[in-house]
Write a structure and sequence with these properties.
Layout (H helix, E strand, L loop, with lengths): L2 H4 L5 H20 L19 E10 L9 E13 L4 E10 L2 E12 L4 E8 L9 E6 L2 E10 L2 E13 L2 E9 L7 E10 L3
Antiparallel strand pairs: 1-2, 1-10, 2-3, 3-4, 4-5, 5-6, 6-7, 7-8, 8-9, 9-10
Length: 195
């Protein structure tokens, strides 16, 4: 995404998000220039995610309102390695008060930028989202994107934390103030299923 493409966004948050994306793009281009500093290879950062998981999901219905009104779902997540670990395909199936829910997430590693991208699609919409982009540091993964929620431009942050061989926590949060504050929107706790 270029800054020019984002320029039409009316809200200040959108402008801040676009500036962030433009700087990230410039940083990516700068990373292609030869440097003496070795970047950390994060290709195996999502290896913990490979396998089958039991998941419990809490989805906050209107996260930016401050309301705690949420729905809860339980199900399974199956993740398989693609391209010898340079990509992963995640399949989610869960049941909740509105019935059965299915989704896919595609994780791709960019070896030049040393970053991961996560694309998501819900089976009901069939529309692939813009990716969250980021990396792991000290065992915590943080990926970011600009999106809209109820017609408002927002920032989205996905965080993988508390990673152990048999469990991890994922939380997606929204910000409508340029990242000063974050409101949880989707919380998942995963426990490995043993075969």
């Amino acid at each position: 995404m270029t800054f020019a493409r984002c320029f039409g966004v009316r809200r200040l948050v959108g402008a801040i998000g676009c500036a962030f994306l433009a700087l990230a793009g410039a940083a990516g281009q700068a990373a292609e220039q030869p440097t003496n500093v070795a970047s950390r290879d994060g290709q195996h950062d999502f290896d913990f995610n490979i396998g089958q998981w039991k998941t419990h999901i809490r989805r906050i219905l209107d996260p930016l309102s401050g309301s705690a009104n949420a729905i809860e779902l339980s199900g399974t997540v199956t993740v398989r390695k693609v391209w010898d670990g340079k990509a992963e395909l995640e399949e989610i199936e869960a049941d909740g008060p509105k019935g059965h829910w299915e989704a896919l997430a595609l994780f791709l590693y960019n070896p030049q930028a040393h970053q991961w991208g996560q694309w998501f699609v819900n089976s009901k919409s069939g529309v692939l989202t813009s990716p969250l982009i980021g990396a792991f540091k000290d065992g915590r993964g943080e990926l970011f994107a600009q999106d809209t929620f109820d017609g408002r431009s927002i920032l989205v942050r996905g965080v993988w934390a508390d990673v152990t061989p048999d469990s991890h926590h994922y939380e997606e949060s929204y910000s409508d103030d340029g990242g000063k504050t974050w409101a949880p929107a989707f919380i998942a706790n995963l426990t490995r299923l043993r075969q």
